[in-house]
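ok, trying the design again with the full structure, not the truncated one.
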């Protein structure tokens, strides 16, 4: 990847590309998910052991739902950045191979399938 290629990436894409070469970060994310699950289990254990009131149970449930929602939204946003980065990298490889560039909403496999169908029809 050239410096010019890197400059064409959005800030989030640059961060994702950089993080992909840092395996410790995925370990940290896994640890955070485990901690979140442990906190949920601890909250449920407290409810079971102490028989907390309905407002306390509701409060704990709301915290769990909010934390889960934040995790899911951040995960979804990160997946969108990954998809964008993959599209740009595919376009870069296609450019290097001097083949037709896949359109933004296109799919390289669909183009290859169409090309093979056309080849079969002409054979």
């Amino acid at each position: 990847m050239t410096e010019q290629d890197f400059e064409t990436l959005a800030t989030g894409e640059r961060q994702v590309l950089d993080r992909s070469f840092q395996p410790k970060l995925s370990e940290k994310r896994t640890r955070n998910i485990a901690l979140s699950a442990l906190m949920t289990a601890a909250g449920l254990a407290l409810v079971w052991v102490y028989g907390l009131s309905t407002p306390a149970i509701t409060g704990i449930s709301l915290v769990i739902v909010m934390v889960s929602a934040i995790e899911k939204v951040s995960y979804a946003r990160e997946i969108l950045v990954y998809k964008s980065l993959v599209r740009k990298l595919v376009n870069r490889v296609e450019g290097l191979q001097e083949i037709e560039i896949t359109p933004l909403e296109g799919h390289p496999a669909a183009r290859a399938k169409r090309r093979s169908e056309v080849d079969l029809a002409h054979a």
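Keeping the full-length input from now on. The chain has a mean pLDDT of 79.
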